[in-house]
Design brief:
With 514 residues, the protein is mainly α. Among the domains are: 4-114, Response regulator (Rossmann fold); 128-245, Serine Threonine Protein Phosphatase 5, Tetratricopeptide repeat (Alpha Horseshoe), CATH 1.25.40.10; 430-514, Serine Threonine Protein Phosphatase 5, Tetratricopeptide repeat, CATH 1.25.40. It is built from 25 helices and five strands. It has helices at 12-24, 36-46, 68-77, 95-104, 116-143, 151-175, 181-192, 196-209, 214-226, 230-243, 248-261, 264-280, 284-305, 308-324, 329-341, 345-356, 363-375, 379-392, 397-409, 413-426, 431-443, 447-460, 465-478, 481-494, 499-510, and strands spanning 4-8, 30-33, 54-60, 85-90, 108-111. Strands 2-1-3-4-5 form a five-stranded parallel β-sheet, with helices on both faces. Helix 3 (68-77) links the parallel strand 3 (54-60) and strand 4 (85-90). Helix 10 packs antiparallel against helix 11 and helix 12 (264-280) packs antiparallel against helix 13. The longest helix has 28 residues, at 116-143. The radius of gyration is 29 Å and the shape is elongated.
Amino acid sequence: MGIGCIVVDDMGPMRRTVSLTLQSLGFTDIYEAKNGREAFEKILAFADIPGKQIEIGFVDWNMRPVTGLDLLKMIRQEKRTRDMVFVMITAEQLQDNVIAALQAGVDDYIIKPFTPKVVKEKINNLIRKRSRELRKEYEEFFSRPKGALDELAVREESERGLKEYRQRFNKLQEMSVWSSIIPVEIGRLHFTAGDYEEAEKWLRKALATDFGAPEAHSLLAMTLRSLGKIPESVQELEIALIERPHSGELKQRLGEAYLKEGRLDKAMLTLTEAIQLLEAQSANGSMARTKNALGQTKLAKGEKDHDEGMKRAAVEDLTDAVRQDPSLVAAHYNLMVAYKSTGHAREAAQVLERIQSMEPKDAEGWIAMGKAYLERGEKAKAKFAFNKAEGLGNGRFAVYEEMAQAYFDRRMYDDSIPYIDRAREINPSDIFTYNLKGIIFRNRGDFTSALGEYSHAVTLDPSNSGLFFNLGVAHFKAGDKKESLKHFRKVKELDPGFAEADDYLRQLAAVGVG
């Protein structure tokens, strides 16, 4: 790898041994020096030459006239070299030596004798350490208030920060081309910046190096979810869980994904398992969100099956979620809906009052706030809340999907369509936008446009019985009974238990079609 590396030792055979070890790990630009003074002169000589700087040193402790510790202090005091990675090599692990080196800013140390495997592990460890430090920096950069900056200035600042941190990560990548650590971190950087397509590219690159790495699969799942690629997102979470079956947080994310897909039984089972794992791990911070998702799942299942007991169980879970995290606006909103569904209008009104007094800090919270305003018929306030959510959403598909669905549920189609279109721009291959827009056109009596939306959707997901059902209904409403029959038969072929299709098939049979 073309990153500058220096080996410093007063014994020639040891310098040669370390250099050969580094060559076996892929380093090519390796320099040698027999003491700290000679090394410092070489490091400074290359410091101002772009692409030639020495970025990492493996340095012996005991040398004359300038020791390894002296060299470390000199490097940390010089502005041009202070960020250089410094690994100390010593014959014995003396506590005083270790403390002195740590105080002077050493990155790591290696005890003689050592093997290439040990050196590789040390490099991986220091790459992880440097990556965590960089991650903390860029998370603060992207989350800090933008003040009076306009949209263009915010975007330019974000792009500048992204470029700077990419360059710093690229330097670390050159030290560990065999590892997936930096591709994962670059993927995380792009995800944080809202650049989801680039994040997906880097995370897939990481998995090409280390398939099965749970962190990469988990991050890729979140990225794909943000892009609206729901089935692929679920698949990545399922793979991550194979490697980390006792991760409550992964179970939680998978349960939420099942909920989004409408797989309510799987969602309930997975979220219940997540709660058990989180309780065992005392992970109280994640518990409220998991309880919220479980309560939302039970509420959806209770309404689907007309099961009052399931709805009451949803109220209990959502009450727990609100108690565990009183700032979780989404849980408050779901609790309000659950109270309404179980006939507790007074309690629902009290929760709504609490929602209106809260100030969300994330996109999901503002979406819940917007939905609550829509419940009250306060459209202007809802629009304000959704605008806040859009600003915090970093272009995530799920943010536009939620807002489009919220307006759609209240038959506010003109408000829903712009969010549908924005979601489609993010992921043109997701069936959600075509299906929802098709229903809007159908409800407006524009069956030609509805058929165009549904026809495109079934090409994207030819095994989805719901899409064929909607296509059949659109043909039926448009008066094309023979074409509708074909699609309702396809529904029954895909899902023999699809009862709504039976109703239409009976109507068609009654008029002699079929």
